[in-house]
Automatic annotation (TrEMBL):
<dbReference type="Pfam" id="PF20277">
    <property type="entry name" value="CTD11"/>
</dbReference>
<dbReference type="InterPro" id="IPR046921">
    <property type="entry name" value="ABC-3C_CTD11"/>
</dbReference>
<feature type="domain" description="ABC-three component systems C-terminal">
    <location>
        <begin position="125"/>
        <end position="261"/>
    </location>
</feature>
<protein>
    <submittedName>
        <fullName>ABC-three component system protein</fullName>
    </submittedName>
</protein>
Length: 265
C-alpha cells in the first residue's frame, strides 16, 4: 500500500470504522447504495448479509494517477478519514469507483455526499425542535397507567400471530432505535426520573412490564419489528395526538435501557 504523501496533510493513516460510525453511514444512505440504489443489507436465513463497504471519496492512498486526476478539486472533511469523506456503497460500486476513478466520478460522489450531509442535518434539527416537547407529553400520559392496563397490553402481544417471516427490517429497526436513543436518552431518562420522584408514575412497574412483554413475544417468535410497531401503536393510543416519532423514541428508550431484544448471534 502506498504511503500517504508527506506534503499532503489531508492524507492521514487509515482509521478503523467503529460499529456506531458504520451504522451512521448506513442510516445516512437509508440502507441503499447512493450510486445504484441497491439494498445494502440482504436477508439470509435469520441474518442480514452486509452488501456494502464504507468507501473513501478521496482515496486514503491515492495512486500517482489519482493525485493528478483529482488535483485541485474540492475535498470533504478536514482529512481523508473524516466521516465527511466516507460513504456507504455497495461492493460493486465501491470496487468500480476505486478501480476507475475519474474526475467526473469523484465530483459526482462529492456532490452526492454533500446532499446526504445536508439532508441529515435538516432531519436532526427539525426532529429536535418538535419531538423534545412531545416526548415529555407522551411520558406524562404514562402516569395514568395502572396494572390492569399493563395486563391488557400483555394479552394484546400474546394475540399477535406467530410470524416466521425473515427479519428484513430488523437491522434498519436496530439503527432506528440506536439513533433515537443517542439523541433522546437523557431527556427521557430525566423525565421518567422526575415523574417517579413526584410519585406520579412507577417507572419500575412500567419498565418491568414492558420488558416481560417483549420477552414473551420473543419466545413466541414474533417478529421484532412487529413487536416494536405494536408497542409504538399502543403508546400512541395512550397519548392522543402525539406523533409516531415521539412514541418511537420512548419505546426505543425501553428497548435500550431494558435490553429487551436479544443479540442475534
Ligand atoms: Zn451500488
Amino acid at each position: 500500500m502506498d504511503k500517504p504523501e508527506i506534503n499532503d496533510p489531508y492524507l492521514i493513516e487509515r482509521v478503523a470504522i467503529t460499529e456506531n460510525t458504520d451504522n451512521a453511514h448506513l442510516l445516512e444512505v437509508d440502507g441503499m447504495c447512493p450510486l445504484c440504489g441497491n439494498y445494502l443489507l440482504i436477508p439470509k436465513g435469520k441474518r442480514m448479509n452486509k452488501k456494502y463497504q464504507i468507501a473513501h471519496i478521496y482515496p486514503n492512498s491515492p495512486t500517482p494517477n489519482e493525485v493528478i486526476e483529482l488535483q485541485g478539486l474540492e475535498r470533504l472533511g478536514t482529512n481523508c478519514e473524516d466521516f465527511e469523506n466516507k460513504v456507504a456503497l455497495c461492493k460493486d460500486c465501491h470496487g468500480y469507483y476505486d478501480d476507475h476513478k475519474t474526475k467526473e466520478e469523484y465530483l459526482r460522489l462529492v456532490m452526492i455526499k454533500k446532499r446526504l450531509l445536508a439532508a441529515s442535518k435538516a432531519k436532526i434539527s427539525t426532529s429536535h425542535q418538535d419531538i423534545d416537547e412531545e416526548i415529555v407529553l407522551v411520558i406524562n400520559s404514562l402516569t395514568n397507567i395502572d396494572a390492569i392496563t399493563l395486563k391488557k397490553m400483555e394479552l394484546e402481544y400474546k394475540a399477535l400471530k406467530i410470524s416466521s417471516k425473515i427479519e428484513q427490517t430488523y437491522s434498519i429497526l436496530k439503527y432506528k432505535i440506536e439513533t433515537y436513543v443517542c439523541i433522546y436518552f437523557n431527556l427521557i431518562k430525566e423525565t421518567f426520573q422526575n415523574l417517579d420522584q413526584e410519585k406520579k408514575l412507577n417507572f419500575d412497574l412500567v419498565a418491568s412490564e414492558v420488558r416481560s412483554s417483549f420477552l414473551k413475544c420473543d419466545e413466541e417468535m414474533v417478529s421484532k419489528s412487529e413487536i416494536f410497531e405494536s408497542l409504538v401503536k399502543w403508546l400512541k393510543s395512550k397519548s392522543s395526538g402525539s406523533s409516531s416519532e415521539a412514541c418511537e423514541a420512548v419505546i426505543s428508550y425501553f428497548v435500550q435501557s431494558c435490553e429487551v431484544f436479544h443479540e442475534i448471534s
